[in-house]
Amino acid sequence: MLRGFFTAASGMYASQRKTEMITNNMANAQTPGFKADYSHIRAFPEMLIERFNAGSSRSEQVGTLHTGVYVQEVIPRFIQGDSLQTDRPTDLALMDRTDGTAFFSVEQNNEIKYTRNGKFTVDPEGILTTENGWPVLDANGNRIRVASEQFEVDEAGWITENGVQVARLRIVRSDNPEDLSKEGDGLFSTDINAGLPLAENADFTLSQGFVEKSNVDVTRSMTDMITAYRTFEANQKMLQAYDRSLDKAVNEIGRVNG
Fold it and tell me: Where would I find the Flagellar basal-body/hook protein C-terminal domain in this sequence (predicted)?
């Protein structure tokens, strides 16, 4: 019976983690470039139950016992989001042309991070930054400085101001974006020491005055949320049933009449 407590509790915990993940997805449904997470739920290995008869050395197989489930991993889905026209010159949208995924490169605490959120701005010092103030990097890994927000960006990422090319955006690509670590502020990082390689012109196209919308499917997220809640509720009722059975075993079955 005590095993049943652990099995039901593991189901509740897995459902709670999935609910938290879906809640985060829905909260970022309007965040440019956001990639929705999805989870892999796995079952713990089954246990083989055997019974030994009194006075015999031979065992009899009773069957298998499931010991619960757990969330094995949570990874983002790198499906291309739709484009939203904003007509702001500092807004840029990446469109993938190959199987890989392209990213902007930004600097965070002296480290290179990657993002799909191209909603940029220009700070008081003339540095092109993300909305959260992280500097956007050029192809040489340097910060990009512009005179104003009235610049032009072509499909290859070249920034032109007053007819002069100022810099080229550092656009990188990953053939296995699922291996990237998801961080806050829409940023991703990699364990590769050299970082992600520069993308070729054929890997992407860049549109100025657009941003990539979140790829969160709100309707599906609502359905998944209800399913996760119902699963949590079912495991909760199972836990309550085990508790009532244990209470009866202790207070009624184990009672000795005088």
Answer: 208-251
Phi, psi of 49 (to 5 degrees): -95, 125
Q: Which two tokens stand for residue 18?
A: 């999935």
47, β-bridge pairs: 65
- Kindly give, in sequence order, each residue whose CB lies less than 8 Å from that of residue 53, ignoring residues fewer than 6 positions away: 60
Q: Which amino acid is at 238?
A: M
Nearest to 148 by CA among 92, 206, 90: 90
Q: What is the DSSP string of 52-99?
A: EPTT-S-EEEEEEE---EEEEEEEE--PPPPEEE---TTBEEEEE-SS
Mean pLDDT by 10 residues, the chain (258 residues): 76 90 94 91 74 68 73 87 94 91 94 95 95 94 93 95 94 92 90 86 93 94 93 88 80 61
